[in-house]
């Protein structure tokens, strides 16, 4: 059974999520990936405010394909999250409460999710055509010159994700592997 | 230069002109079987392949994903595979990219030695095909300039990475492999010691997949090169990905190693997206090459489940 959750995520909703839970997200999420992260962190380093208020927000690691005429967005699946590991603790300090990406996170980042009471969701990599259908509105809100890597405000409806790292320190990648690993008789 | 020397030069030029004319005739006579192919035709083909490869998964990959779904025991993995298959239907129906990462455009060319490419520069014609295909197909431009500083988007996904083989015949075969960054970034090279043998190859390949986890988007096609030199073994690993899923290396000993590795990879528990399950890989493809007495090079190039490729023969 999937849990229906509306963004911005409340502390109660986050407390209720456990690694492995299937979630359908509805509401506003913001896209940001490698280049946008670098700029946000550099801006903050100079003492400037980030271009969007990150408090309570959900960040989606994606760089969509251009939309066909009549569409609002092209293919828009998650990109690999570990590349953002160096930036993530700062993003959480700035108030980010949830991140959507694919693949695992470093130990440091997993610990940061616990200490900041934030979650890391996984979306299915390589399902960008399907996920695009859950995106109802798109606006570029910062760094337009970055093209696909610009920060976009998305309004999503029933966007399917799974809890990979919860606020209690559980990790779906570790759990899944230990549950399904088996030994093979040597040849 | 004195007058005498200038005469000699002139005389040589006349002479060499005559020789060139002579050899030209010989060349024309001997080259009666050369087939002209206009490079503009290559541009059109690459543009078309760019789009088709990014919208439609190859039949063998779809069949392998369906088989993985039937055999999968983990409920969560079953759902992931269902969504991957549904995604392929939506991409084909709506003609939008299967994955937003429409890749580095890797092109493999088999050029028949009796082919004469006319009407322009091949390298430019290939790049033009990528530029047109990505623009007209609403595909993402993912290539950046100067990799360690400026990293400015080239704006048209060029340049492609081009591999050419000269082969007998008068055909030109073009295969496009749009290669996503998530899986390409997990490529690994090891120069093992000859004594490390088969066990060394198995350990290195499994370690590469374990450490990659969900990053390369399993279920994977695992490309492995063994032998040759450092650069050649990586080329073999990439080239092995061109093989149809389910086809084995014709050398039985290599085919046995493919089977053994596939069983071990799928016993890892990693599963689709590394969320646990049986289907971590759809296939392990190995290509080998003779190597130096001191060496045992092993290259691993992983392919995500969005295993896009398309071939045309001109």
In summary, what is this structure?
The complex is a heterodimer of chains A (187) and B (314). Chain A is an alpha/beta fold.
How is the topology of this model organized?
The complex is a heterodimer of chains A (187) and B (314).
Chain A: E1 3-6, H1 11-15, E2 22-31, H2 34-45, E3 58-60, H3 88-93, E4 98-101, H4 107-115, E5 119-122, H5 128-132, E6 135-142, E7 151-165, H6 172-180
Parallel strand pairs in A: 1-2, 2-3, 3-4, 4-5
Antiparallel strand pairs in A: 2-7, 5-7, 6-7
Chain B: H1 3-30, E1 35-38, H2 39-55, H3 59-71, H4 75-94, E2 104-112, E3 115-118, H5 122-136, E4 161-167, E5 172-179, H6 181-184, E6 188-192, H7 197-212, E7 220-228, H8 230-240, H9 252-266, E8 281-291, E9 296-303, E10 310-313
Parallel strand pairs in B: 1-3, 2-4, 7-8
Antiparallel strand pairs in B: 2-5, 5-10, 6-9, 7-9
Helix pairs in contact in B: 2-5, 3-4, 7-9
Description of the molecule:
The complex is a heterodimer of chains A (187) and B (314). Chain A has 187 residues and is an alpha/beta fold. Chain A is built from six helices and seven strands. Chain A has a single domain (3-177), classed as Fe-S hydro-lyase, tartrate dehydratase beta-type, catalytic domain (fumarase). A five-stranded mixed barrel of chain A has the order 2-3-4-5-7. The mean pLDDT of chain A is 97. Chain B starts with a helix and ends with a strand. Chain B has nine helices and ten strands. Classes of the chains: A alpha/beta (187), B alpha/beta (314). The interface between A and B is large, with 49 and 54 residues.
| Overall outline of chain B | globular
The helicity of chain A comes to 10-25%
Number of helices of chain B: 9
Radius of gyration of chain A: 17 Å
Number of strands of chain A: 7
CATH architecture annotation name of chain A: Alpha-Beta Barrel
What is the N-to-C order of secondary-structure elements of chain A (H for helix, E for strand)?
EHEHEHEHEHEEH
Largest interface: A-B, 49 and 54 residues
How much is the radius of gyration of chain B in Å?
Answer: 24 Å
CATH class of chain A: Alpha Beta
